[in-house]
Amino acid sequence: MLLLMNIQTPTAGSTARSSLTKTLVGFATLSREQAKQSLDNVSCLKGTDLRSSQKAEIAKLQEVIFKDLLILKVQQTLDELFRSGQLPFRLTAHNVKKLAFDEYTILFYDSRIHSITFTVKIGASFKEVVKLAVLQRVAGWKSVL
Fold first, then answer.
1. What is the mean predicted confidence (pLDDT) over 34-38?
2. Among 22, 52, 95, 135, who pairs with 107 as Cys (CB 3.0-4.6 Å)?
């Protein structure tokens, strides 16, 4: 589909690649709106004379990229918690679902904890909110044992 829209893959030094890298590296400090704006600014996803069907496809692609960034950030956070000994077992994030403007659910590949739902307030660090939600849920799981 990208070939039909005449969109080129970003090169190592391109603005698009650096924008995605900055978004990924600094995501914990960005609000969702800032991260979304960064994705909107990626030049390889923009076009000047696109048809509405192409714009719809690009919008879907941007949402997929944003979702993948969320899953990646959640998994990095889970790995940090496990390495630091704060999690008694390794968790793998399968999916992140956006339920409302500021509410998310993380689905796990784990029989002990299936999912966690949390709210991210404006200005809060996504990473810190995920840490807190996971640690609270794991604490509840430990008390069951």
1. 54
2. 95
